[in-house]
Amino acid sequence: MAGSRPRRGAGFAAGTLLTAGALSAMPGCGGETAVSTAEIATVDIEPGEMLLVGVDDGASFTATARDADGFFVAGTARWSIDNAAVATISEAGFVSATAAGTATVTATIGGVSATAQLEVFVPARINDYRPGQSYYGRRDYVEYIPGELPVILSSSHGGAMTPREIPDRTYGVVRNDTNSLELTMAMRQALIDLTGRAPHVINSHLHRSKLDANREIVEAAQDNPYAEQAWEEFHDWIKVARATVAADYGKGMYVDIHGHGHDIDRLELGYLLTPEELNRPDNALNSLAVVAETSIRDLGRTSPIPFSHLLRGSTSLGGLFAEEGVPSVPSPAAPGPGDAPYFRGGYNTREYGSFRDAEVISGIQIEHHYGGVRDTPDNRHAYAARAARVIRGFMLEHYGFFEQPFAVRGVLLSNLPKYRGPTDAILPSRRPETRGRSRQRPRAGARTPQRPRADGRHSGAGHRSELRAAALGRAGNG
Ligand SMILES: [Zn+2]
Fold first, then answer.
1. What is the rounded average pLDDT of the residues 29-43?
2. In CATH, what class is 135-472?
3. Cβ-count burial of 375 within 10 angstroms (0-12 exposed, 13-18 middle, 19+ buried)?
């Protein structure tokens, strides 16, 4: 891509110097053909790296020429591709994928050329996910281990991979939740040991400096196509797991596993309620309006016990963790976080819990403190056994799962086929059904840098605490 990087500085300079008269000569403004008639010095091609997913995918490259002073020079690009087996390219720069592989795309204007990298990734088609087997996406960044229980675990912030093809993220939190992936896998094993069946597990193996899988795609992947693909895989596989649990059981639990660096050593159980809401008395929480704001909305609507008990009574997750000797908030001993920093649940909890009407999987974010819980293999093992008993106890109490015999919609679990999920499930593509962000390929004009949004999910106090914890070398955040 030598010579192909966007020269934003030059572009701004040109814009500043242009007079009204000159503007009328801009391509597309006055119908004239050139801003500058000087010789072309550089050609920019956008995007510099393109990833197409599947053989029916296609997208456009664009090329622009500038003179030595950074002024645009009109001209039509000639396009070529060095590996016609991978994709074809039109006269307008539109590439159509034909097979998996990589290629170099070249644009030439007035004898000056620029190149961009193209990759066509073709996901394996999977018709039958096998519980216990690991499935990986592109370059093994994301892993899905299908399960049989109505329980889904995910690890967003514990990956170790730092591939050079993905630049470090430039805003948002980039520090990992230390050992949270190992903790997730320990919890998986503990659930197998306890129940004889496995939960579904989705892991991001990318370090958080490369992908934050617990954010929307813009902040998560920061415009890098390879990080975006990993994000799509991670979230599509949670959707696959969720659809499987919903189809098999009609309801279930999603648990997003994290580590926090706050001062108080206790689990932070996130149901999307704010600290202010949790600091209120029980009777203020016992309303359908409050239930509807949470990621356990489905459970809250169908449970016969007051919602405050479901959140922090003796049979709540916090109550059951207390029985296991693990402090947490909210819980009977700590109904609300008070003034202390507290993570209430992030993107994944909101997306994959039952925050929206008609969703049947309840979602909870568990933020783990470090010492005694996730610091050593022995402590992870011991904690995971406790957490497995808590999850089992919670589901027995509130879902009726794990009763003996274990019946699902009238069918004994032991009689259920191992897997009855989508018959035409495929590895994640880049085209999920619905997504807030347009999945159109980026165009040159659309690649404006995205700024971080104010993020209501993590309070300012929490963020400062994260920074403090990071400074102290304590492990993990959000
Ligand atoms: Zn985290």
1. 67
2. alpha beta
3. middle
Would the pLDDT of 206 be above 60?
yes
C-alpha 173 – ligand 1 centre gap (Å): 9
Residue 324 CA to ligand 1 centre (angstroms) = 23
DSSP assignment string, 386-442: HHHHHHHHHHHHHH-TT-SS-EETTEEGGGS-S----TT--S--S--S--SS--SPP
420-455 confidence digits (pLDDT tens): 333 333 333 333 333 333 333 333 333 333 333 333
Q: How far apart are CA 313 and CA 231, in angstroms?
A: 36
Ligand 1 centre to CA of 435 (Å) is 22
Q: What is the CATH number of domain 8-121?
A: 2.60.40.1080
What is the residue-averaged pLDDT of the chain? 82
Task: Look up residue 101 and give its two tokens.
Answer: 């592989």
Q: Where are the domains of the chain?
A: 8-121, 135-472
Of the candidates 200, 202, 201, 224, the residue with the CA atom closest to the CA atom of residue 211? 224
Ligand 1 centroid distance, CA of 467 (Å): 13
So what's the pLDDT on residue 196?
A: 87
Q: Give distance in angstroms: CA of 477 to centre of ligand 1.
A: 5
Tokens of 201: 């597990």
Q: What is the rounded distance in angstroms from the CA atom of residue 115 to the CA atom of residue 43? A: 9
**pLDDT tens, position by position, 95-128:** 999 999 999 999 999 999 999 999 999 998 888 8
| Residue type, position 319, single letter | G
**Unique residue bearing structure tokens 């959000």:** 478
Ligand 1 centre distance from Cα of residue 180 (Å):
8
Q: What percent of the chain has pLDDT over 90?
A: 70
By CB neighbour count within 10 A (0-12 exposed, 13-18 middle, 19+ buried), where does 56 fall? exposed
What is the b/e burial string over 155-179, where b = at least 16 CB atoms within 10 angstroms of the residue's CB?
A: bbbbbeeeeeebeebeebbbbbbbb
Return the number of other C-beta atoms located less than 10 Å from residue 239's C-beta.
18
Give phi and psi for 39, each to the nearest 5.
Answer: -70, 145
Cα distance between residue 380 and residue 160, in whole Å: 18
| Interacting residues of 195 by C-beta distance below 8 A, sequence separation 6+ | 149, 388, 392, 402
- Measure the CA dihedral 437/438/443/445, to 10°: -60
Please state the length of the chain: 478
Cβ < 5 A residues, ion ligand 1: 157, 177, 258, 478
